[in-house]
Design goal:
Order of helices and strands: HHEHHEEHH
Largest sheet: 3 strands, antiparallel
Strand content: 5-15%
Number of strands: 3
Helix content: 55-70%
Number of helices: 6
Distance between the termini: 18 Å
Radius of gyration: 18 Å
Amino acid sequence: MSHEPQDALSRTALGVFRLNGQLLAVSEKLAEPAGLTAAWWQVLGAVLPEPLPVAGIARVMGITRQSVQRVADLLVREGLASYEPNPAHRRAKLLAPTDTGRAAVHRIDPGHAELAALLQRELGGPEAFEETARVLERLSKALETVAGPGPVTSR
């Protein structure tokens, strides 16, 4: 029996774990001058387009509701976000960025744009960068399909 799929999965997992660490480290560096952490930036970024409940943010980001709740509470305490009424659910408030929170995220834009340009060049241009994003999105969707919310079993 061939171990090629297992080897590919192991290499993919190790690569994603390493990439996650690299992205977190560079995100911390980018966010620091704006007075944010990578986690604060991540949660604020999720609600820039529209306010979301904590559970919705967690689903989009693929992390636990509890970890988003801790960050959301800190953002509210620091005046970077606020809780708003949710017309769809009385108890699940919506998290929304404040003007101060939006301004903090916008202070990251120049460094973010510079990193994006450097990565695009290193990857071989815009098409290669887009393809990289598509492959990662496809991998995430495939894993969600085969693994679902519980442990993986033979199907």
